[in-house]
TrEMBL record, chains A, B:
Keywords: NADP, Oxidoreductase. Transmembrane segments: none annotated. It holds the Pfam family ADH_zinc_N. The keyword NADP applies. InterPro entries: ADH-like_C, ADH-like_N, ER, GroES-like_sf, NAD(P)-bd_dom_sf, Quinone_OxRdtase_PIG3. It comes from Gracilibacillus ureilyticus. This is Putative NAD(P)H quinone oxidoreductase, PIG3 family.
Length: 326, 326
């Protein structure tokens, strides 16, 4: 079969579409004919050899395709359309994945749309529900509303919890997208102090949940914005990791729960349970069109270098998709 | 009736045992004949007028006594022995308390022992179970093991969860007490680096839960000591509140849940639910002697100035009790 490898650890020019060995189907796996793969930041790190050196790795962790070998796993049959996160090898004609992490694709979605779901929606779901325990009609502040996880989080918070969603972004076209997806309050952080906007929008009580991709740069304002008994989830440090002074008494006075999380290093068991629950909770909402994958650009697999360039330059506001099979 | 008031906001010499008005029994309250009250740090702040000025406040928040007016609350009858946290007025012959925060006293315990239970055991229970969600046989690091909350937490973690308990204290006689109460690993923090001891005792994996009364001074070592997916609960800042240079990525890498909490400012509803659950879970263990209130000294109510002096000088390792009725 053919797949995208990095000839040597390095830049985009190292990516080539060449003959590679067929994947080995181990117990626990199913074999998928890949129709679309999505580009993730971890793919760039893998290409650069920053995830530990592997010779000529087949890049990619997110796919949508058709089951061609269910390998005895009762939940799947030859021909089923599935999507999910894989342990590498997604930019290829075939890939294996653990059967307990594969999700059936809602009927109304094509493979490109399906490939845009797993990473951002699973991360947003985990953060909002497994960590922040968002309840019905609570308020939530979602930073980077135009990002992949941001757009997924806005939709889940509205669609599953009828939450009051305040979101920040640095460009009006991104905020317009957030509004389309259901956000209630839109803050351009370049023009306004989001803590003040949160105070106004919540009549001074603050938000129950914060999804924080930004870290140090927003520390003070996030503290001002959170309600008593609020849950503050750290899932990124785009604005720096080091906070110069943290007053622990502040955390006690507001009884804040501050949780750091990463999805990728979690156990297989955790990911399987998360995948199952997410699929159960959201399948129908995707089918009805109440949840929508957000795609920026679809490239042919041969255009992988352009796709990586787009991600490296942060030009996208939705997912970047590689079409593997027409 | 008679009660202890502060003549003026100030020192111990302001405390006098004098005639005061009988308490008013409001709907929701029961009336208790007080047999014993316990001394708490908040009593000193109240005496000093630091909790907001009230003229001649009757001091005290923790009692054990006998119900003399159940005021229609079906759960109680005249003559029941009860204990609990009250909204002031505990150092007196009679006090009212919300019926839904009163707990029946296990039969084997006298009033002095019962008065030593509510504050420290409810705080330890809330911290270990409602916030840190301690599971069976998990590991927990309990700082200030000789303190009131520390001694309660060690017993609850062993008695309810068969947990692996590592505890710190600064004196060998305190550690000996912790050992009596069931602690598995004892660390004199003046002689050893507790983070190293935790590493040795957990074979490098760290503890699942930390009860942190110390704050800034232990920040680095607590971070070293906590396991992946660990829950770290801040309930005091005896070692300073301000931490310099906190790296948020560290919290993400270990997926730490850091929660600040205080019990006193919680809602009446919260305290009522906590009291009920605590009483259900622990009543039998107190009766069997598997949980034991820890008393340092019992004073007569007339010796209240000595009792406050002992607390102010941090001389006690268990509760200080005021005997109101013989």
């Amino acid at each position: 079969m053919k797949g995208i490898i990095a000839k040597e650890p390095g830049g985009r020019d190292q990516l080539v579409y060449v003959d590679v060995p067929d994947p080995v189907v181990n117990p626990g796996d199913i074999l998928i004919e890949v129709h679309a793969a999505a580009v993730n930041r971890t793919d760039i790190l893998n290409r650069e050899g920053k995830l530990g050196y592997v010779k000529n790795p087949v890049i990619g962790i997110e796919v949508a395709g058709i089951v061609v070998d269910a390998n005895g796993h009762g939940g799947f049959s030859h021909g089923d359309r599935v999507m999910g996160l894989v342990n590498g090898g997604a930019y290829a004609e075939y890939v294996t994945m653990p059967a307990n992490r594969a999700m059936k694709i809602p009927e109304n979605l094509d493979f490109n749309a399906a490939a845009a779901i797993p990473e951002v929606f699973l991360t947003a779901y985990q953060t909002l529900y497994w960590i922040a325990k968002l309840s019905k009609q609570e308020s939530v502040l979602i930073h980077a509303g135009g990002s992949g996880v941001g757009t997924a989080a806005i939709q889940l918070a509205k669609g599953l919890s009828d939450a009051f969603v305040i979101t920040t972004a640095g460009a009006d076209n991104k905020l317009a997208k957030c509004k389309d997806l259901g956000a209630d309050v839109l803050v351009n952080y370049k023009e306004k102090d989001f803590a003040q906007e949160v105070e106004n929008a919540t009549e001074g009580s603050g938000v129950s949940v914060i999804l924080d991709f930004v870290g140090a740069q927003y520390w003070k304002q996030n503290y001002q914005s959170i309600a008593i008994d609020g849950r503050w989830v750290l899932i990124g440090v785009l604005g720096g990791s080091t906070v110069e002074k943290v007053k622990l008494m502040d955390l006690m006075m507001k009884r804040i729960q501050l949780t750091g999380t990463l999805l990728t290093p979690r156990s297989d068991q955790y990911k399987a349970e998360l995948t199952r629950e997410f699929s159960d909770e959201t399948y129908e909402l995707f089918e009805k069109g109440e949840l929508k994958p957000v795609i920026d650009t679809i490239y042919a697999i041969e255009e992988v270098q352009k796709a990586h360039e787009m991600m490296e330059k942060n030009k996208n506001t939705g997912k970047i998709i590689l079409k593997v099979k027409s």
